Amino acid sequence: MDLLVCYLLQLAILCISLPLVFHIYKHKSSSTKLPPGSKGWPVVGEGLAYAMATKSGDPAKFITDRMSMYSPDMFRTSLLGENVAVFCGVSGNKFLFSSENKYVSTWWPRAVPQIMHFNSDQKSFDNEETSEQRAAVVEFCKPEALRRYMSFMDTMAKEHLQRDWSPYKEVNVFPLTKKYIFALFCQLFINCKDSEQYLTRWESSFRVMSAGIVSLPINLPSTAFSRAVKAGKFIHEELLEIIRH
């Protein structure tokens, strides 16, 4: 009898507590000024919806659906274990790119530094580092640089088409395009003459890393994230060896 009374008392406390917690959480959420939207499921967020849209070949549908539901300018969601605000309209993107290091700052999702094996576990950059990165990208995209690389890129594209496209009646465009871009990266950015050798050694590791970056950052054996961390370590060590050489 005492056990039954104790059980009923605990059940009554639970029934009273849950509505109270829900009321406090709802009041707190409504008092915070946030963009319209939804964080989806606990932990997972809206990652599954984004993954399904990507798998169907139309990842933009994830964005357009929420633009129609919430706002054409901005909405909030939860992806890759992070709460994020997505800017969609012209004015929102203008604000984003004109306010860097003033109202917004560059940052990485928590999975990226671990997979890429950055020297620092910081998720954001200081002003100097961001400026250096932007300057490096601009240098590669200058008309002078593009003219210097254009003939080389054209030659590689012709060789790629003759070797991997022309002999076959049917080709899978997406993986072959990735193969060409990867070979181009090996040649232009790290100056690897034998790009086929590195392509064979790195292709599977980069594929595992890509899958891990868009997965939940749960570092347990056999998870996509755990495999991506190992693959990232392999690529990191390979690049360091090339730099030393």
From TrEMBL:
What InterPro entries does the record point to? Answer: Cyt_P450_sf (IPR036396)
- GO BP field: sterol metabolic process
Instruction: List keywords of the entry alphabetically.
Output: Iron, Metal-binding
Question: GO molecular function, one example?
Answer: monooxygenase activity
Instruction: Please indicate if the UniProt record lists Glycoprotein as a keyword.
Output: no
Q: What PANTHER family does this protein's entry cite?
A: BETA-AMYRIN 28-OXIDASE-LIKE, CYTOCHROME P450 26
The entry's family comment says: Belongs to the cytochrome P450 family.
Q: What is this protein called?
A: Beta-amyrin 28-oxidase
Organism whose genome encodes this protein: Morella rubra (Chinese bayberry)
The opening ranks of the lineage are: Eukaryota, Viridiplantae, Streptophyta, Embryophyta, Tracheophyta
